[in-house]
Amino acid sequence: MSEKPKQLTKKQQKALEFRKTKEEKEQESQKRTNEELNPSTNDPPKKKRKTRRGRKGKGRRDDSSRANRFLIFVGGLPRDVTSTELQAHFKSSAPDQIRIRQDKGIAFLEFDGDKDPKTIQRRMDVALLQHRTSIRDKKINVELTVGGGGNSQQRLEKLKNKNLKFEEERRERLTKLIKEGGLKKPESGSTSTATTAQGLHPDRAKLLQ
User: Fold this and answer.
1) Does domain 67-208 sit in CATH 3.30.70.330?
2) Which of 45, 56, 127, 189 gives 20 to 30 Å between its CA and that of 86?
């Protein structure tokens, strides 16, 4: 006859259970350590959190819209000139925005090419015809400019070339407009004598120095 298995006492059973519990805790701890040191390659990649700035960190605002805006410089203004006065003076050209710097007696007329591409060129021509007209008995200077600010040699050269080229194109367009009866003939010399040999009005060149 085979011997019956020896029955453990209650004290021995408790000791065995305690030893098993301790071993299980050690195994669980070792498993966690291994997982931290060797993360599973099968885990799905974490999705990148989208930011408010949109894709690739770029802002939602489309800077390309600024590329189709054109500026016209207005100088020789009274220091306390108001936006209402300028809007009335340039009513025929209807600039989309007027920015005034009263401390310097200047302003910038802004024309949005995306807003009205068909008439923007004509409106700018009409605005440029206001050159040497008067606001409060002060003759103002109106000429094409470029955005960006500053007075670097590169920007001055860009202004010079742009004004010379635009002056030539403007004469052709104004001649056509006058022939069509859409505009009155400007005063003699008002479209050419205002620009120096460098392609910039003296007041404008002085401001950039």
Assistant:
1) yes
2) 189
